[in-house]
Amino acid sequence: MIFGKRIRLTSPEREDIPLFVEWLNDPEVRQGLAVFLPMSNAKEEQWFEDMLKRPPETHPLTIEVREGTDWVKIGNLGFFDIHPRAHSAEVGIMIGNKNYWNKGYGTEAMELLLKHGFETLNLHRIMLHVYDFNPRAIRSYQKAGFVEEGRLRESVYKDGKFHDTIIMSVLRDEWDGRQQDEEQGFENAK
Ligand SMILES: CC(C)(COP(=O)(O)OP(=O)(O)OC[C@H]1O[C@@H](n2cnc3c(N)ncnc32)[C@H](O)[C@@H]1OP(=O)(O)O)[C@@H](O)C(=O)NCCC(=O)NCCS
Description:
Layout: E1 2-3, E2 7-10, H1 17-24, H2 27-30, H3 41-53, E3 61-67, E4 70-83, E5 88-95, H4 105-119, E6 125-131, H5 135-144, E7 147-158, E8 161-171, H6 172-189
Parallel strand pairs: 5-6
Antiparallel strand pairs: 1-2, 2-3, 3-4, 4-5, 6-8, 7-8
Helix pairs in contact: 1-3, 4-5
C-alpha cells in the first residue's frame, strides 16, 4: 500500500466492482469522464479481467480515506499509456463518492501518485487530459503541480455542444523543485 497523510492507495479487488459501477453511473461523476453509456457489472468485470493482464504499473489504485478505525473507498486513479523509452505516462482519476469532493482528497491522491510515478516508476513526464468544463479537476491538478500545455479545440461532444480538451503535464524537474521548496518552507518554519 502507498500511504499519504490522510489517505492510502490500495489495489482494487473484484468485490469492489459494484461500487465502481455505482460511481460510474452517477451522472455528476461521469460528467468529467470519457464515459457516455450506462455501466454494468458485466462490463466492469470484463474491464477488471483485462486490467489484470496489463503491466502491473498500469493497474489502477483505489483511494481510501481513514474514518475512525475504518478505511473508506472513495475513488480510483492510476497510470496508463506508459512509454518506457520516453519515461512518460498519462494519469486518470475519479473520486466516485461525491461526499468527498472539495476536501483536498483528489489533490492529495494525485500528489501521491506523482511521487510514485517519479520516485518509484522513474517517469520523466506525467500528463493528463481534462475537459474545459471541469474547473474542479483543473484547479486540483494545478494544486498538484500540473501546468496547461495545450488544447485540443472542440474535441469533445457533451450535452449537445463541442468543448475543448486541455492537456496538462508535470515534469520531473518541476516536481523535484516543488519538493525542495516544500522542504525549505518546512526548515524556515522550524
Ligand atoms: C476532479 C476530482 C478528482 C478533484 O478531486 P477533489 O478532491 O474534489 O478536489 P480538491 O478538493 O483536491 O480540489 C478541488 C479544487 O477545486 C476548487 N473548485 C471546486 N469547484 C470549483 C469550480 N466550480 N470552479 C473553480 N474551482 C472549483 C475547490 O475549491 C478546490 O480548490 P481550493 O483548494 O483552491 O479551494 C474529483 O472532484 C472527481 O473525481 N470528480 C469526478 C470525476 C472527474 O471529473 N475526474 C477528472 C477527470 S479529468
